[in-house]
What we know:
Layout: H1 20-30, E1 36-37, H2 52-61, H3 75-87, E2 98-101, H4 103-115, E3 121-126, H5 130-138, E4 142-149, E5 155-156, H6 158-162, E6 169-175, H7 187-200, E7 203-207, E8 231-237, E9 250-256, H8 262-274, H9 280-283, H10 285-291, H11 296-300, H12 305-318, E10 323-324, E11 333-334, E12 337-338, H13 348-359, E13 361-362, E14 364-365, E15 377-380, H14 385-402
Helix pairs in contact: 1-13, 2-10, 3-10, 4-5, 4-8, 12-14
Amino acid sequence: MRQITQSSKLAGVRYDVRGPILQEAERLERAGQSILKLNIGNPAPFGFEAPPEYIEAIERALPIAQGYSDSRGVPVAREAVARFYSELGLANISPDDVLLGNGVSELISLVLQALISPGDEILVPAPDYPLWTAQVTLSGGRAVHYPCDEANGWMPDLAAIEALVTDRTKGIVLINPNNPTGAVYSADLVKGFAALAERHGLVLMADEIYDRILYEGAAHEHAALHVTETLCLTFGGLSKAQRVAGYRAGWLVASGNRERASDFLEGLTLLANMRMCSNVPAQYAIPVALSGESSIDAMCAPGGRLREQRDIAHRLLTEIEGVDCVLPGGAMYLFPRLNPERYPIDDDQHFVIELLRATNVLVTNGRGFNLPTPDHLRFVTLPEVSVLTEAIGRIAGYLDSVRID
């Protein structure tokens, strides 16, 4: 009989964060081994719990959240998002400009499906959150990666990006703070992205899910504040700063020149209607989360848990011979580099699997984030200090065994 095969659309699509490396970790777990999973930014397993007021808001909403909502989301949640961005200084934002989704991941998929025709190009950072590249490919487009300079704190070069623009370029992705590097872009750099998008009529897609996870005085600049002549799409949600990834409560805000983008927005509405709506009970946590002070600020301040974990993990990693790492200004990851002269890695996925087998610590390879070279790892800094210390100690022991002196 004819074999049942996967769609040709999946050719070139990868998502190593949950790919073969995780599958090997699951095999080891089935064999009775305990695996420390440092591959996904999922706060809950590491003791970050939802504030009780979020849970109470959802519980109160359950009797009225049993049916589908408006495909855009419940009015009270969209109003809260619109008010939040208006208070940041974004002009002329109404609930009609807000679309709620099952996390940012679903909204990225909807946007790229509505935007891309076969052969269109989207400018995406390298390294990137791999869902962006994967969804561009699945939508029939081509992800054109613009490099971020590790020697310059993982900052991109605007002139180099502009040189990549062609008549097929439809949009540009800005991930700030960046995943996986934790780089936080200056206000001038963000303004430069906005100006570039306006010069070429590109959709500026600002992935700002980590906008409140900032260290040492780093300031986040919202891209939408600087876009007037083209369309800006801002992605945010409760998964990271509010530490409730499982609620799947994300939002998309359309700003800038919506009239010029009316046809695209009509297509986006069509796709949103087709999936009915996002998780209705979780939408009721959004107004509560956006109405008060977030405890994330204290966690990122000196003495706070996230700040302490970042600092200690960074110190321990960079004490390993042949390992260096740019200190991230935001997010919840480290992206260390293994000196290729000391660690000559050809296949970084295979290397990470061997590291997993030897240490029972699960991390992700740099090429999984569309980095062109096989010399980086990414792991989360969410575990408590004692767990991070143990994990990095195991990693250091393995690297000692494979390092070329």
